[in-house]
Amino acid sequence: MAKIKAAILGFGTVGQGIYHIVNEKREDLKKSLGLDIEICAILINNLAKERPETPGVLVTDDFEDIENIPGLQVVFEAIVNEEPAYSYLCRAIDKGCHVITANKVMFSKYSIPLQERAKSRGVFVGYEATTAGGVPIIKTLKNLLQVNSVKKIQGILNGTSNYILTQMRLEESPFEDALKEAQLLGYAEADPYNDISGQDAFRKLMILSALAFGKQPDWNEVRVVGIDEITLEDVRKAKDTGLRYRHVAEIEQDENGELYASVGPQLVGPDHPLYAIEGVNNAVSLDTNYIGTLTLVGPGAGMYPTASVMVEDYAEIIGKRAGFFITI
Amino acid sequence: MAKIKAAILGFGTVGQGIYHIVNEKREDLKKSLGLDIEICAILINNLAKERPETPGVLVTDDFEDIENIPGLQVVFEAIVNEEPAYSYLCRAIDKGCHVITANKVMFSKYSIPLQERAKSRGVFVGYEATTAGGVPIIKTLKNLLQVNSVKKIQGILNGTSNYILTQMRLEESPFEDALKEAQLLGYAEADPYNDISGQDAFRKLMILSALAFGKQPDWNEVRVVGIDEITLEDVRKAKDTGLRYRHVAEIEQDENGELYASVGPQLVGPDHPLYAIEGVNNAVSLDTNYIGTLTLVGPGAGMYPTASVMVEDYAEIIGKRAGFFITI
Q1: Of A5, A65, B70, B221, which is least surrounded by CB within 10 A?
Q2: By its UniProt entry, which InterPro entries does this protein fall under (chains A, B) (predicted)?
Q3: Running DSSP on this structure, what letter comes out for residue B2?
Q4: A299 and B CB contact within 8 Å
Q5: Which residues of chain B lie closer than 8 angstroms to A146, CB-CB?
Q6: pLDDT tens per residue across span A189-220
Q7: Which portions of chain B are predicted below pLDDT 50?
Q8: Helix B159-170 vs helix B232-240: crossing angle, to nearest 10
């Protein structure tokens, strides 16, 4: 059976999740796709750091080693920050690799040039994992847009912020304690700035904007507020009046095609669709012309949800390239 | 530009919705698919009945007229009941047509033979519209199953029942008044038995079961209870204690692969994910091994939501057949 050679860039939580799922589902993927997948290389930052064993896999801190693998076809990217991720993916595309990324910081900025580069090379960019973790909002939106137009998108796009707000309310934990807990559980990064400042939600909103509206608003004109100024006292007061804080990212297109976006905390009551979205969950609502409002809810972070949608991207891309159709 | 000839079987609410959307989106579909679509025939039950004008389209009450259209490639089916829908679709498949159905009564029973027949003829069956209206649960589930296994499915699958329960609570309407209103709004059929008895939700649950687990439980062993015995008094009592009635369909697979399903009203509190699902909305939650719990919420009935997902099925099938990939 023909083999697909794949590499993973970055071996943190998500990278390890991909490795685990690919190995666990290898036989099933063989059956459904008619092609075997082999993770043949992993790019890491620090060769000295302890990491799970990956027998038979080239582990390197030099991207050139990966680039030079003969017949490499798929690159899973789970690094943070714009660079060197963007350069690596450009080089992978130039070599004829499909790329599947979880990197929202990079993709929010480079989605258009990266996809154009892929198109001209006849390969695909999978980016389901960049936005809303395990929630398949990218595929759903792509499919909807075949027939519908989207008027507005509203959602909870940062699982860490939602987890912290939930813990502050349920456990009456101060902000700092809830943040520490989120870090211990692997939801928040060691440097939580992007999560709690609203920047992470903002980047995801920009990815959704590019897909839904074919463009993004001027980044400097979007008001972005995080959850870092919400005190336990604020949360208690809201609770006493039956309300909950939610960190909401939203974008709307007016009749002239202008985009209006904002990111920040909102107080919502029991009838609001985001009221019941608790813990590390994300939710995204799409207002469309034919379907009306469609909402997706699921885990917005975590090793397996994020890695799972990346392997689903792989199955979709390889299924298409192999000329058969993904059916059950 | 090559043209795809399509026919619509049944010209009620959903059939008319398809006709309208296909005509409104024709230019966009041309651009995205590189193929034009033409609705060239409509099958109706009663030629004497008044209906919207469809200039240039063959309108007939004889399926043979449709079967004999040279080069017909797609059949949209929006009839109710098993027969003659199933026979018509078999004949369409035998002629080499892709079929796209909204008929849950037929499809819950014949999903396996219909899909096998289509496979052997090299055509596709689209059935997103059979389950949960405008909510793309079929596509989401198919995609998830590439990597995940599903343990449990739980949802509100009948928009009419949910609309009636919502109106009884919000407007303090008796059951009969709320039902009449649902009929006026086009949510409930003239004969509302399938909706209010739970049978409609049951059929949709069986479609999800076939897809998620590759089989269905013994139909006779599933307890199916409708909303027809819930009184205004019951709803008021629940409301006074902060609870809401929801009509819930659920199915679970145990470790031995046995399926356990039930359909009936449940009382839920504000923290339950189905508490905030109001009106004609449907919701489906999928418990999966890697992603965790994913929930989709959207309109469970209505002309445009249902017709829209059928046209999306068309775009998906034709995109695949034409050998290109649906991307935005």
Answers
A1: B70
A2: Asp/hSer_DH_NAD-bd (IPR005106), HDH_cat (IPR001342), HDH_CS (IPR019811), HDH_short (IPR022697), NAD(P)-bd_dom_sf (IPR036291)
A3: -
A4: yes
A5: 29, 32, 311-312, 315-316, 326
A6: 778 999 999 999 999 999 999 999 999 999 99
A7: 323-328
A8: 70
Q: Which domains does chain B have, with CATH numbers?
A: 3-133+304-321 (3.40.50.720), 137-300 (3.30.360.10)
Q: What is the pLDDT of residue A126?
A: 97
B36-43 and B58-60 beta bridge pairing: parallel
How long, in residues, is chain B? 328
Of A146, A292, A295, the CB nearest to B312: A146
Q: Is A22 within 8 Å of chain B by CB?
A: no
- Whether A311 and B147 lie within 8 Å, measured CB to CB: yes
Q: Are A13 and A80 in contact (CB under 8 A)?
A: no
Candidate from B146, B298, B325 with C-beta closest to A291:
B298
Catalytic residue among A152, A204, A239, A320: A204
Phi, psi of A287 (to 5 degrees): -95, 115
Active site residue B204: yes
Eight-state DSSP code of residue A257: S
B298 CB near a chain A CB, below 8 Å? yes
Residues 131-170, chain A: which have Cβ within 8 Å of B? 134-136, 139-140, 142-148
Contact B126, B317 (CB under 8 A): yes
Output the six-digit token pair for B94: 């035998």
Cross-sheet strand order for the sheet of B125-126: B58-60, B36-43, B3-9, B72-77, B98-101, B125-126
Judged by CB atoms closer than 8 Å, whether chains meet at A298 and B275 is answered as: no
Contact B146 A32 (CB under 8 A): yes
Rounded distance between C-alpha atoms, residue A231 and residue A295, angstroms: 29
pLDDT averaged over every residue in chain A: 94
ipTM of the complex: 0.93
Task: Number of A to B CB contacts under 8 A, please give it.
Answer: 152
* pLDDT per position as a tens digit, B257-305: 999 999 999 999 987 889 889 999 999 999 999 999 999 999 998 889 9
Would you write out chain A's pLDDT as a tens digit for each of its 328 residues? 889 999 999 999 899 999 999 999 999 999 999 999 999 999 999 999 999 999 999 999 999 999 999 999 999 999 989 999 999 999 999 999 999 999 999 999 999 999 999 999 999 999 999 999 999 999 999 999 999 999 999 999 999 999 999 999 999 999 999 999 998 887 877 789 999 999 999 999 999 999 999 999 999 999 999 999 999 999 999 999 999 999 999 999 999 999 999 999 999 998 788 988 999 999 999 999 999 999 999 999 888 999 999 999 999 998 876 544 433 3
Q: Strand, coil or helix: what is B244?
A: strand
User: Catalytic pick from B31, B104, B204, B320?
Assistant: B204
- Helices vs. strands in chain A: H and E counts, helices first: 12, 12
Q: Quick: pLDDT tens for B159-172.
A: 999 999 999 999 99
Per-residue tokens: B207: 């479609």
Nearest to B273 by CA among B140, B152, B154, B164: B154
If 0-12 CB within 10 Å is exposed, 13-18 middle and 19+ buried, where does residue B240 land? exposed
Q: Please state, for a pLDDT cut of 90, what percent of chain A lies above it.
A: 88
- Distance CA(A181)–CA(A196), nearest Å, equals 14
Residue to mutate among A147, A208, A274, A287, with most B CBs inside 10 A, is A147
